[in-house]
Amino acid sequence: MEITDLTPAERRVWEAFPLGEGVYFRESDDEDPGSGASWGPERTVRAEVLRTLLLDGPARDGEIAGLKLIGARITGRLDLKYGITEHPIRLRSCHFTHAPNMYGARLRALVLSDSVLPELLAGALRVDGVLRMSRCRIAGPVRLAGAQIAGAIFLDGARLGPHPGEAGGSALQLNHAVIGNDIWAAGLVSHGQIRLNAATVDGEVNLDDAQLHTPGGTALQAETLSVGTDLRAMRLRAHGRVNLSGARIPRQLNLAYARLSTPQDQALRASSCVIGELWLREAAPIEGTVNLRRSQIDLLHIDPETWPDSVRLDGLSYRRLGPHLPAEQRLPLLEREEGGYLPYAYEQLTTAYRTAGDEAAARTVQLAKLRRHRRTLPRYARLWGHLQDATVGYGFRPMRAAAWLLTLLLTGALAFTLHHPRPLKPDEAPDFNPVFYTVDLLLPIIDFGQEPSYSPQGWYQWLSYTLIVTGWILATTIAAGVTRSLNRQ
Q1: Closest CA to 179 of 126, 108, 137
Q2: Widest distance between CA atoms in the chain
Q3: Among candidates 308, 182, 191, which has minimal Cα distance to 238?
Q4: Among the listed ranges 183-192, 277-286, 347-356, 368-377, which one has the minimum average pLDDT value?
Q5: What DSSP designation does 76 have?
Q6: What is the DSSP letter of 208?
Q7: 104: helix, coil or strand?
Q8: What Å distances lie between residue 197 and 146, 175, 232, CA to CA?
Q9: Residue 109's closest CA among 81, 67, 78?
Q10: pTM of the entire structure?
Q11: What integer pLDDT is reported at residue 432 of this predicted model?
């Protein structure tokens, strides 16, 4: 391309390129690039001119060439497909009439901040530096699947996808991408799906204050995502499923103050994940199911009122649970399990309380587990469970047994004081003692010689039978409780 073929605006760009200088077309700092369709020829640059500069532009000794435009209207398609350029590309506050095609290209750096684009075709893109799309407005999909970005990706304040009310598919495709630093997307607004499947991010993913709108679908699709540090999504608003199944997040998955909404479906799917800390502190009540099956989490921080009416927790393991609350406030969650009674869920909650040193809460959870299990048994088996529960609380309430024994001892001692039973062999029987006689009846392993020497009659005989049977039951349940306690140790 000859310089004589250029318009005055294009000539300014051509002359500034070998010096790496910027060309400013903006008329004011608050100018909206969305109105770029009306910009005249004095600030219009053809995409083919930019392509020629980037692939075979003029150079000057001792200078670092580069493309830097601010506030230009770029017409035609900027086609760099499979191209290699050694020059940084900075196109700020520009208006693109056609979607740039950078599929398979290799670039030094790409800056599109504050620009307006129909879409971006950049699958398998390689960038040696950063990719900046801060505050961009891109109506169609941003295709970056398989991209390799040595630095960070900036999408803070960007608006992706169609306007509210219009149909939207995928807004951002970063599946199988490799990011050498962070994905910084604080304040991102997306009307369409964000795809991060199998992506690798060496730093953190920041979605603080982001708004993801995909009603009835998946707003964030990030299966097997691998993050170097954190995934931050504080104050996230997700109208659609957040799918993190199989993700690896070694530090924090921070959803504090978030609002997740997918009624009649899964609002949060984080199954088979490995997460350092999952924070849902002061998040709004989740609308939809939470699926944490088979995940491994060191710290799970969530208020009881944040959990939805339906959860899937089979195989979830966690070491600590916050905030520390009485067991009575945590137990209702286990009743919401879609799969019904899960013994492992109770054991996991017990472990968390024991890790915190709250043995009383751990015993409460174990007692609740046995009561829940009782509801799954046949009717005849439930009777024995009710008896164990009423007498000694399945061994977790040992003082109940002492109270029962003391009550029966006082009852028997008083009854037999008022009416001594008849001695079987008056010449050989020891002196009658109502207290020790009652103890002989109640405790089968103790023998004071009173029971075999005396024989009550009438209703006193029935009282003695009642004491014997009750004593056996109490002894059996106490032994079962002691055995259970030793097994826990």
Answers
A1: 126
A2: 140
A3: 191
A4: 368-377
A5: S
A6: T
A7: coil
A8: 10, 4, 17
A9: 67
A10: 0.82
A11: 85
pLDDT for 397: 65
User: What local confidence, expressed as pLDDT, does residue 384 receive?
Assistant: 66
Question: What local confidence, expressed as pLDDT, does residue 447 receive?
Answer: 77
Nearest to 391 by CA among 487, 483, 481, 486: 481
CA distance 413 to 415: 6
Pick the closest to residue 286 from 253, 262, 270 (CA basis): 262
Using the predicted structure, report yes or no on whether residue 1 has a pLDDT greater than 50: yes
The stretch 148-169 carries a mean pLDDT of 82
Residue 459 CB neighbours (<10 A): 10
Tally Cβ neighbours within 10 Å of residue 310. Answer: 16
Helices and strands (H and E) in the chain: how many:
9, 37
The CA-CA-CA angle for residues 449, 454, 455, to 5°, reads 140
DSSP 400: H
pLDDT, tens digit, for every residue of 164-197? Answer: 444 457 999 999 999 999 999 999 999 999 999 9
Please provide the DSSP assignment of 122-184 as one string.
Answer: -TT-EESS-EE-TT-EESS-EE-TT-EESS-EE-TT-EESSPTTS---EEEE-TT-EESS-EE
Task: Name the 3-class secondary structure at 202.
Answer: coil
Instruction: Verify cis geometry, omega within 30 degrees of 0, for the bond prior to 323.
Output: yes
What would the two tokens of residue 209 be?
Answer: 């204050």
DSSP assignment of 233-296: -TT-EEEEEEE-TT-EEEEEEE-TT-EEEEEEEEEEE-TT-EEEEEEETTPPPPEEEEE-TT-E
489/476 Cα distance (integer angstroms):
20
SS3 state of residue 312: strand
Give Cβ neighbours of residue 115 (< 8 Å, ≥ 6 apart). 33, 91, 92, 93, 94, 95, 96, 133, 136, 137
